[in-house]
Amino acid sequence: MRILIVEDEQKVADFIKRGLKEEGYAVDVAYDGEQGHFLATTNDHDLIILDVMLPEIDGITLCQRLRKEKVLIPILMLTARDAVLDKVKGLDSGANDYLTKPFAFAELLARIRSLLRHAENHQAINLQVGDLTLDVVTHKASRAGQPIELTLKEYALLEYLMRNAGTIVTRTMISEHVWDIHFDTFTNVIDVYINYLRRKIDQGFKKKLLHTVRGRGYILKEG
Ligand code: CA
Fold first, then answer.
1. 130 CA to centre of own chain
2. What is the whole-number distance in angstroms between the Cα of residue 7 and the centre of ligand 1?
3. What percent of the chain has pLDDT over 90?
4. What is the pLDDT of residues 34-71, one digit of tens each?
5. Cβ count within 10 A of residue 7
6. Tens digit of pLDDT for each residue in 82-134?
7. Pairing of strands 47-51, 75-79
8. CA-to-CA distance for 163 and 38, rounded, in angstroms?
9. 24-45 burial, b for 16+ CB within 10 Å, e for fewer?
10. What is the C-alpha to C-alpha distance for residues 143 and 51, in angstroms, rounded to an integer?
């Protein structure tokens, strides 16, 4: 899961970013509305945390613009204390939920989970490839009924591969979806994680699911 934070107060942005990364999310930050618009339309995110008071383009205008441009992912708006008008305008502009500053991080996390769960309801909650299953809400994976323990990054990688099962995903695609935009794609971190994952999902099974496509990337498929 990859989240975009649009917030001009660096302290707040850094605080949210740090907390979300600890929870295993990939996080990008934009410090004004213009940059936020650019990142939201050029990258694939699962959720946007959008502050209302922003330089360049304010949060309400940005939200309206993104919805008009068919960016339909969940948007959680951050509003100033007691700014009732902001809340109403925010929801009218197409935001899915709002949170009043200052907020407890636990509350932010709960809202994010709820929004993502909602979004997931429109998609499958259980991803399945052959006898490998992954529950995107509980993060539980299993193969042929045997549970598989995954680290946060392994989970994120497996989820991405399963959502794209049957198609080749390149290292660049993986780095953009599972890590963040500043990730150096020339490091071998991805290969290392692919190997961890391969050991966990394929070792001991006759039928391999995770395949390397030489010179191109990886593919998760049956047979
Ligand atoms: Ca602000």
1. 24
2. 6
3. 62
4. 999 999 999 889 999 999 999 999 999 999 999 888 88
5. 25
6. 666 677 777 778 888 889 888 999 999 999 998 988 776 655 568 899 999 99
7. parallel
8. 25
9. ebbbbbbbbbebbbebbeeeeb
10. 41
Residue count of the chain, please give it: 223
Expressed in angstroms and rounded, the spacing between residue 54 Cα and the centre of ligand 1 is 5
Using a CB cutoff of 5 Å, list residues around ligand 1, an ion: 8, 51, 53
Q: What is the pLDDT of residues 154-172, one digit of tens each?
A: 999 999 999 889 999 998 8
Cα-to-centroid distance, 76 and ligand 1 (Å): 14
Res. 184: pLDDT tops 90: no
Cα-based angle 213, 214, 215 (whole degrees, multiple of 5): 115
Copy the structure tokens of residue 114: 């709820």
Q: Ligand 1 centroid to 178 CA: how many Å?
A: 27
DSSP letter at 179 equals S
CA-CA-CA-CA torsion sign (6, 10, 15, 18): positive
H or E segment at 20? helix 10-22
